[in-house]
């Protein structure tokens, strides 16, 4: 009898397994859904895949994208993972490929992890636009770049020079000492200061490691070491918020200005209390808007993503694809007391 | 051997009064239900039936589900889940649990990345090293569970953090992506001209190994005994500690292998890879009808459980349902599946009232 139940279970296991596997392997291969490149703007469908859902930055950029999609009368959808993990976007890219979307507009969580999935999507005729954060250039058609290094450096130097009246002492509060982006920007800022603002002295570059507490402490140290300091420039969102928080609560409020790269929600109260006159970042709404138009241009065949291709991007005007498939949004956007209330990210 | 015992018992006059009135005296359970009823009214077959229903529903009413890409993506997605669900089934059948599997995957991903990209080892060598690390992780868990007799829940919660910490500590927040493209394309390659990904081959091999191990060897039978009661298992000749040790080592090795696959599929070695996958694995195993308290379960149910999670997620994503809602549905299914063994047992006990036997 033991043998009885044993063989019954064996038969059962085998049957179950083959049933399960047969189920998994059938079903492929029938109708290939072919709604590839539509010629005109209508009937296009465009999927936005942010790094994660519920992120105010991407809510803002995707609403810009949706505006553009409505302008050229296509269908817009936004999907994505709950959390920003390197592989979380892959399933959503796969789904868009299955659905035969005309274009994916994605901010890559990782330069390489979504690559295979994006290339498979491109093979079945989906145009791929990256924005905000690029993937490897061989797995997308174009990258909509929010700002180039030169523009970021230039804007920050212009801001601080204007705020301190063209002369005085400034310090930079950066991220970590080996942060590639920040170091590149600081180098360009130093060149710009030397060339056009000889009366501004850069007294120290401090590193807050993109850690709130450390940036806060570094701000205190800067202020104690350099008693004649006029402004702190922080090209990182963590640093600028920590520096502004320290100064707004200290005796230096009103004496030492803070500027750099920040987000409106972080900086709102410091703009209101005067610690910060103005700071810069790109406008994510415009970024999403431009990315959607780029997707439109690719999906309709207006451009191939080659260098020198030009396309119309609604209210933003005409754009040209640059080297390596990059489309540059423009100079950073300056936020000040006048306009900060229009933004929520 | 047990049949001899039975025969001698049936011949003993004292047992005669236990017979159930049929022609022949019998001491084993008298099955009231026909064989097909016993075979199909099980939790496993309910899950398989549900899988079939969901599959048919998705093919009919979900746009693009019947498209050519679905099966390919489905299998690529569930491959790591399927692999790890196999040793996890063994562990849960013994009444234990292994929460550290996803952390072992992360550690394996980092090890294979460092060995291949930074030290320049060939990928098979780096992979072998990662599997050795996985075996060591499994043995570490197994030692504390089997020989120190600590509860596996506590041990593997500890190692969940420990192995993840090691993985993130080794690489920091950086990622290694410079893998040999031949190997990364192999991870997503298809078998011949078909759309079935190549990874199905190792998955099927692993399934066969684990089915034989669990259902056709004394070792596997021993795991059920341990799950029922480890003391009686010991007295009936099962080497409890060694069996537990083996299940955890298997879990470590398979998780490491899944970690290598994961790394190659995404071309990306990171400490935070596969974060949280352990819960999906455990959900799939329980959904497949394995009793969380141990002692009951079968691999065909688990395989159906994994496929069911894959098909539901894939179909609902195509419908544009957000991941939160998908998780709610899978959560509800999970609770329902934990309850079904009781419902099924009730059904199996239920018997129609017999007409009174006239004397």
Main sheet summary of chain A: 6 strands, parallel
CATH architecture designation of the largest domain in chain A:
3-Layer(aba) Sandwich
CATH fold group of chain B: ABC transporter involved in vitamin B12 uptake, BtuC
Structural class designation of chain A: alpha/beta
* Bulk shape of chain A: elongated
- What's the structural domain tally of chain B? 1
Top-tier CATH class of the largest domain in chain A: Alpha Beta
**SSE order of chain A, as H and E?**
HEHEHEHEEHEHEHEHEHEHEEEE
Radius of gyration of chain B: 23 Å
The share of residues in extended strands of chain A comes to 15-25%
Please give the alpha-carbon distance between the first and last residues of chain B.
40 Å
Q: Quick one: how many beta strands of chain B?
A: 0
How would you describe the overall organization of this protein?
- The complex is a heterodimer of chains A (345) and B (359).
- Chain A has helices at residues 2-25, 56-71, 90-98, 115-123, 149-163, 180-196, 212-225, 237-248, 264-272, 284-299, and strands at 45-49, 75-78, 103-106, 127-131, 142-145, 168-174, 200-207, 229-234, 257-260, 278-281, 310-312, 318-320, 326-328, 333-336.
- Chain A has two domains: 45-146 and 284-329, 3-Layer(aba) Sandwich (Rossmann fold), CATH 3.40.50.2300; 149-281, Response regulator (Rossmann fold).
- With 345 residues, chain A is α/β, with parallel strands linked by helices.
- In chain A, the strands form four sheets. A six-stranded parallel sheet of chain A has the order 2-1-3-4-5-13, with helices on both faces. In chain A, strands 7-6-8-9 form a four-stranded parallel sheet, with helices on both faces.
- Chain A is 41% helix and 19% strand.
- The N and C termini of chain A lie far apart (70 Å).
- Chain A is built from ten helices and 14 strands.
- The longest helix of chain A is centred in the first third of the chain and has 24 residues, at 2-25.
- Chain B is mainly α.
- The two termini of chain B are 40 Å apart.
- Chain B has one domain (38-345): Orthogonal Bundle (ABC transporter involved in vitamin B12 uptake, BtuC).
- Chain B is built from 15 helices and no strands.
- The model of chain B is unreliable at 1-20 (pLDDT under 50).
- Chain B is 69% helix and 0% strand.
- At the A-B interface, helix 1, helix 3 and helix 4 of A face helix 1, helix 2, helix 3, helix 4 and helix 9 of B.
């Amino acid at each position: 009898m033991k043998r009885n139940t044993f063989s019954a279970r064996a038969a059962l296991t085998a049957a179950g397994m083959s049933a399960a596997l047969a189920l998994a392997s059938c079903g492929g291969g029938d109708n290939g859904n072919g709604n590839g490149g539509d010629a005109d703007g209508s009937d296009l469908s465009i999927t936005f895949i942010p790094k994660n859902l519920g992120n105010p930055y991407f809510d803002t950029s995707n609403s810009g994208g949706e505006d553009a999609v409505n302008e050229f009368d296509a269908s817009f959808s936004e999907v994505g993972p709950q959390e920003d993990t390197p592989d979380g976007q892959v399933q959503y890219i796969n789904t868009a490929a299955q659905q035969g979307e005309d274009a994916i507009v994605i901010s890559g969580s990782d330069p390489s992890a979504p690559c295979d999935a994006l290339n498979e999507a491109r093979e079945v005729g989906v145009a791929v636009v990256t924005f905000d954060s690029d993937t490897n250039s061989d797995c997308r058609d174009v990258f909509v770049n929010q700002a180039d290094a030169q523009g970021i450096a230039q804007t920050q130097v212009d801001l601080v020079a204007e705020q301190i009246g063209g002369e005085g002492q400034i310090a930079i509060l950066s991220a970590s000492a080996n942060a590639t982006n920040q170091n590149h920007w600081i180098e360009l800022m130093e060149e710009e200061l030397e060339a056009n603002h000889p009366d501004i002295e850069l007294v120290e570059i401090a590193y807050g490691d993109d850690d709130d507490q450390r940036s806060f402490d570094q701000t205190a140290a800067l202020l104690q070491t350099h008693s004649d300091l006029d402004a702190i420039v922080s090209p990182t969102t963590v640093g600028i918020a920590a520096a502004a928080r320290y100064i707004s609560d200290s005796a230096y409020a009103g004496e030492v200005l803070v500027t750099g790269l920040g987000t409106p929600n972080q900086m709102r109260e410091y703009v209101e209390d005067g610690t910060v006159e103005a700071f810069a970042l790109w406008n994510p709404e415009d970024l999403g808007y431009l990315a959607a138009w780029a997707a439109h241009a690719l999906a309709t065949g207006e451009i191939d993503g080659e260098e020198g291709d030009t396309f119309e991007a609604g209210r933003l005007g005409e754009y040209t694809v640059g080297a390596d498939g990059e489309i540059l949004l423009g100079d950073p956007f300056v936020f000040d007391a006048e306009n900060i209330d229009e933004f929520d990210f | 051997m047990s049949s001899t015992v039975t025969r001698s018992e049936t011949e003993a006059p004292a047992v005669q009064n236990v017979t159930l009135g049929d022609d022949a005296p019998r001491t084993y359970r008298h099955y009231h239900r026909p064989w097909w009823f016993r075979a199909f009214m099980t939790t496993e077959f309910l899950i398989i039936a549900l899988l079939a229903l969901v599959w048919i529903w998705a093919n009919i009413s979900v746009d693009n589900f019947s498209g050519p890409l679905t099966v390919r993506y489905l299998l690529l997605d569930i491959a790591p889940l399927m692999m790890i669900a196999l040793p996890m089934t063994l562990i849960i059948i013994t009444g234990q649990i292994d929460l550290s599997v996803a952390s072992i995957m992360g550690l394996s991903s980092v090890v294979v990345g460092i060995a291949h990209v930074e030290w320049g080892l060939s990928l098979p060598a780096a992979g072998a090293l990662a599997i050795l690390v996985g075996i060591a992780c499994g043995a570490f868990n197994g030692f504390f569970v089997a020989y120190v007799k600590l509860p596996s829940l506590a041990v593997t919660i500890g190692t969940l953090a420990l192995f993840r910490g090691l993985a993130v500590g080794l690489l920091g927040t950086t990622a290694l992506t410079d893998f040999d493209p031949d190997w990364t394309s192999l991870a997503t390659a298809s078998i011949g001209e078909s759309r079935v990904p190549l990874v199905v081959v190792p998955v099927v091999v692993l399934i066969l190994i684990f089915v034989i191990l669990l259902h056709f060897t004394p070792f596997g039978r021993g795991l059920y005994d341990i799950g029922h009661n480890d003391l009686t298992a010991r007295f009936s000749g099962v080497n409890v500690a060694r069996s537990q040790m083996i299940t955890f080592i298997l879990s470590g090795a398979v998780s490491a292998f899944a970690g290598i696959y994961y790394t190659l599929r995404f071309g990306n070695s990171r400490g935070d890879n596969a974060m949280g996958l352990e819960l999906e694995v455990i959900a799939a195993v329980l959904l497949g009808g394995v009793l969380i308290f141990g002692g009951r379960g079968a691999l065909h149910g688990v395989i159906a459980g994994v496929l069911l999670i894959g098909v539901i997620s894939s179909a609902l994503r195509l419908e544009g349902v957000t991941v939160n809602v998908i998780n709610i549905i899978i959560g509800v299914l999970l609770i329902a599946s934990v309850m079904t063994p009781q419902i099924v047992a009730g059904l199996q006990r239920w018997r129609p009232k017999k007409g009174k036997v006239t004397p």
